[in-house]
Amino acid sequence: MYTLIKKEGKARRGQFETVHGTFQTPCFMNVGTAAAIKGGISSLDLVNLKCQVELCNTYHLHLRPTDKVIKEMGGLHKFMNWDKPILTDSGGFQVFSLAKLRKIKEEGVYFNSHVDGRRIFMGPEESMQIQSNLGSTIAMAFDECVDNHMAQITPDMDEQTKNRIIRKAYEYSKNSCERTTRWLYRCREEMARLNALPDTINKHQLLFGINQGSVFEDLRLRHMEEIAKLDMDGYAVGGLAVGEPTEEMYRILDAVVPVMPEKKIRYLMGVGTPSNIIEAVARGIDLFDCVMPSRNARHATIFTWNGIMHATNKCYETDSRPLDPECDCPTCRNFSRAYIRHLFKADEQLAGRLAVAHNLYFYNTLMEKIRDAIDNDEFDSFRAKYSGLLASKLED
Amino acid sequence: MYTLIKKEGKARRGQFETVHGTFQTPCFMNVGTAAAIKGGISSLDLVNLKCQVELCNTYHLHLRPTDKVIKEMGGLHKFMNWDKPILTDSGGFQVFSLAKLRKIKEEGVYFNSHVDGRRIFMGPEESMQIQSNLGSTIAMAFDECVDNHMAQITPDMDEQTKNRIIRKAYEYSKNSCERTTRWLYRCREEMARLNALPDTINKHQLLFGINQGSVFEDLRLRHMEEIAKLDMDGYAVGGLAVGEPTEEMYRILDAVVPVMPEKKIRYLMGVGTPSNIIEAVARGIDLFDCVMPSRNARHATIFTWNGIMHATNKCYETDSRPLDPECDCPTCRNFSRAYIRHLFKADEQLAGRLAVAHNLYFYNTLMEKIRDAIDNDEFDSFRAKYSGLLASKLED
């Protein structure tokens, strides 16, 4: 259950209680796609990286090791040895981004596994069943994440073609939104049924609804109004950060967040850079997830409190400073830029692990600082100081 | 300095004092080739894995990041953040196994880097200089690790051809041994010079001599007698475990170990399986190193107290037991076979890390148990119980 503690402007300071403990918001969830953080970070490490919530992917776990295996093992918490909250996505996003030969029908989606090609069906009931088997703290509703059809528009296109694309995208998004609403009803009903079964792992599994509507404000607002009626445990904004310009994302947030229920947690899915997060908090978002800190780390791209650095740069060859002198993460407390640069150059797995640990700690500390700032009515100046700085390139 | 504490048969219980602390023997050194253990294990982890000594490779570090960089960073200890003993090999083995187009002369070896192909020269003085720059606790003498020419012999070969190969191998090994002895004198002299320089990182760097002589007992004995005269800080048996049958290795150990100085530590290079280690301890060896525990772990081959298991076997799909129920390593205390099998199947780096941690802990615990056994005059029964068992396939 979400409790709003205080506000500064639209930025919200809150907490969210679950059967697996309470987490403080704004919060960034650390992504462990296949029940593990990429780069060799274990659930034991996460505790030292200030992680509050781990996110796992329903689609990946359904395919491997399968949700049946995980249920037999007592659920994701036992399987990964992580006793704090876990959020699972619905599988929808991966079905629409990874799977092949997908066919969307009213009952759900038929698609081919990207692992072994076998034909799979997933609809709202299947997604709820899988997430119930995983036993996560928070399940996400099964939705359609619509492609950004507007990306087809090019500057040199004539008005008529442009308008045809926009009309088509709008029409598609409208129908998809309506179906996603119908799917949400089915998700809610199925989740209630599953939570009441005697052998369900987490009988208090929560369910968040997801707002869609692409870049069309009126669709977004209408859809948000529709799903707000269902009194879900939380609401997410989906279908953003899928290739549209950042300003478009902020425009949609400006429009849709104000109509999201004030008493419910608000989750912006798949976002983003430190700057994106600060800007979304400023617009009233509470919860985030993104593969960026771990993925960038594995490519030696490091977030610091003075901007972004590339750990393999020649200038760090004999640099005895930590990645970020302002950071007190396990990596920065123990290892130098010179050592980490060497590990990347020598293709040692330890490089990725140390860098991922740092970047996750950076993101989790960013959220901590954001919370402290809101607590102290200093978020506005925090935003002014860091929103641009954290996106800049570090001056060596 | 080595102190022999007690003996049971030929098995020796001792300790070795260095400027970086004392380690107990018999001891297995954990191999961090390029200043890092493969699989993402950090120097901080090693402390929890009962590692007493880390071994790093001179050849690899000379090429990358270069010993000059490491010297500028204050030596290997600071670079890796490891304050316990470090042994560096001489580079000789890699020059003879990895490098291309090598040419051996009296002054040393000319070869091409396996990284970028550039022409490099390494002789006794160069090896000492590099190891002095690395600042390791123990440096190894620069020797020639002779190929096992006897491997050319096939069962269907006529006696004359066989004898020609044996004569040639003998002749080559004899000349090589004599050169290795001359190189040892040069190593010792150069090390003394380097240790006396004002900007040397470890002015107490120790130097071990290496016995060679291939599979020829008389060459081994003569060479051992020659190098024993130099009163080195320790003595290694090199050039074994390079493809010869295990029984050949034991035969050489049976011959050469009795003539090694009783008051000096005895190091069997590049060995081996748990069984090999137990058998070599029984023959009077004190110190070991091998990539086997980490390399095997990365291929899901796990050492347990009941034999060897393959963590990816289907039978472990829902096995909630730790890799080894008798083990209390961080991996076994926290994660199940089912989880680790999944991580391997999903190609998650965490799989390798957890498995490497277990295997290193297993090896380090094996040495601890061997030491306890000798302390309690129970090594003979320990050997009888485990020498075969640890080489067996685990019954699932």
Description:
2 copies of one chain form a homodimer. Chain A is an alpha/beta fold and 396 residues long. Chain A has 15 helices and 16 strands. The first copy, chain A, starts with a strand and ends in a 7-residue tail after the last helix.
Set out the fold topology.
Two copies of one chain form a homodimer.
Chain A: E1 2-8, E2 11-18, E3 21-25, E4 27-31, H1 43-48, E5 54-56, H2 58-63, H3 67-72, H4 76-80, E6 86-88, H5 92-97, E7 100-105, E8 108-112, E9 119-122, H6 124-134, E10 138-140, H7 159-195, E11 206-211, H8 217-228, E12 234-237, H9 246-256, E13 265-268, H10 274-282, E14 287-289, H11 292-298, E15 301-304, E16 307-310, H12 330-334, H13 337-345, H14 349-375, H15 379-389
Parallel strand pairs in A: 4-5, 4-14, 5-6, 6-10, 10-11, 11-12, 12-13, 13-14
Antiparallel strand pairs in A: 1-2, 2-3, 7-8, 8-9, 15-16
Question: Quick gist of this model?
Answer:
2 copies of one chain form a homodimer. The first copy, chain A, is α/β, with parallel strands linked by helices. In chain A, 42% of the residues lie in helices and 19% in strands.
